[in-house]
Each structure stands twice: as C-alpha cells, then as structure tokens.
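Quick one: structure tokens for this chain, please?
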Amino acid sequence: MNNVKEFNSIKNGIALKSILEITLYTFICMCIVFFLVDGIFNDTIAEIINDVDSYIYYRVVEQKPAIISIISLFIMLIVSFFVIRKTMNSLTIITSAINEIIKNPENKVELPTSLAIIENKLNNIRIDLIKSRDEAKEAENKKNDLIMYMAHDLKTPLTSVIGYLSLLNEEKQISKEMQEKYTKIALKKAQRVEELTNQFFEITRYNLHDMPISKNKIDLSFLLDQLLEESYPMLQEKALEYKVIKPEHVYFMGDGDKLARAFGNLIKNAINYSYENTQIEIIMEQEAEKINITFKNKGEEIPKYKLEKIFEKFYRADDSRTSANGGAGLGLAITKEIIELHNRQNSSKK
C-alpha cells in the first residue's frame, strides 16, 4: 500500500513538472517571438508586407489577435512535443531499469540525476525482491527436504505394520497374548503412518495468505473448552493437567473453523513439548476490543535464537524429525497466519 502511494506521488510530481515546463517554456518562447516581431523587426516586417500587398497588410493588422493566438498555439504545441518526448524518454529508461531488475536483481539500478528519487525507490524494490526470492528458495528447499525425510520416515512404521500383520496372518498357533501385542504395535505404527500422511497434506495445502474467512459471532471461551476436551487423550498419555483462567463467555467476530485450527495447534504444541506430570496453563483476557490468550507449559527452554524462528514455516525448534510427536513444522506458522488474517480483515474495515 505504501509503495502504491509513493509511486502515485512520484507520478503526480512528474505530471506537475511537465505542465510547469510547458507553461514556462511557452511563455518564454512567446516573449522572445513577440519581442522580435513587435520590437526589433516590427517596422521591417510591416514595410515588407505593405510593399507586397497593402490589402494583405491591413488584413494582417485587422486579424492580429487571431494571428497571435495561432502563433501562441503553435509555440505551445512545439514546446509540448519536446517536453513530452523528454518525459517519455525518462519512462523508457525507468521501464528498462524495471526489466533489468526482473532479469538481474543483483545489479544495482543507476539512473540519470533527474531521476534520483526513482533510482532509490527501484533499488529498494530490488533489495526486497532479492530478499523475497531467497526466502522463497529457502522455504522451497526446506519443504523438499522435509518431504524427502518424511517419505523416508513413512517406510519404518509401514514396514512394521506389514511385518506384524504378516505374523498374525501366517502364524496360526500364535497365543492370544501375542496377538494382542502384535495388534497394538501394528495399530500404533498405523496411527503414525496416518499422522505423517496428514502432515503431507498440511505441507501441500499451506497457503493461507489469500484464503477467505467467514466471520460469525463465536464464543472463544466455549471453543477453548471444546478443544481441551478433545485433547484429553493426549493429555492423559503424558499425565498432564491443564488450568484455564478465563471469563465464562468471550464473544468475537471470527472464523470458528480456522480459529479452532489455530488454538488446536497451540494446545497440541504445548502438550508435545511439556514435561510429563506437569500442568499447562491457559489464560484468556479481554481488554476492550483486544483479546489476549496465553499458553504456558513446562518443558525444555527454547534458546533465544530459535525463539525468533518458531513461527517460520517448516521450522522445528527441537531439530527432531524422527521423534514420535515430530511434526512438519507448520503448526505455529499456520496459527500465525490465521491470527494475522483476522487482524488484516479487521484493519481493512476500520
């Protein structure tokens, strides 16, 4: 938005400058012409016309205002041509510079002194383009690496599932105790396969920037209660408890499905990285139009340099791709996108 305003300001400045140049140069040219005609060469021109034809002389004198207007218009057209041509040359130079930025953003833009403001702006755009390109390339590399790792990781639980199911199928005299053991192991490995498959889908559909949201009046307090109830098996698995401090009702205009996904990611993240037999604390506070929700858990401390990156897509703070709860590194990134998406929509309506 700021770039558009700046370019509109520059565009209006160029147009205003062109108008002033046309007006100034036309006035100067007219002054010179009329000084020569009515001043220095007035008598000479009059005598020449009168010698050729006295009738023409008197007609010229009679139509002098019209002749002056035609001469003025002619002068203005000539001046306008040269000023517009100069402006078009500048636009051609700017267009060539933009094309060069697209082809070779590493090369610094250099324009004539008269276009210094445009030069600075284009160089800033060039730097932003390089940064965005590098970030996109890094994200793509991370994504490809992660897919490769996850494809490799799929083999391990899938091989176990096939192995234990084959044992159950082939060994007819297997005891009931062993059957239950193999079945439980196969089920656990199958659930891991499902989890990894879901992460594949999460990676491929990650793009929330332009995703529309459907806003309705929702009770965030009730939504949080529902999500915690759904997370009970995960809490029990690590012997975790949760403590919630919140008002009975907190109403908000938002997309319930997407906010449930965002809060669900935060709850899952808090559970995955909590020490066993500890407590997760969730605090919801409402201040005027602002709602603050804080998730606290007790787990391994994240170094400061990693803390700044935990909301980046495909980033894993624990550097553990093979852990049982290892995710694709998208949970917090998606949460951030959903919250920012709501903030952008709210800001655009104010």
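The chain has eleven helices and five strands.
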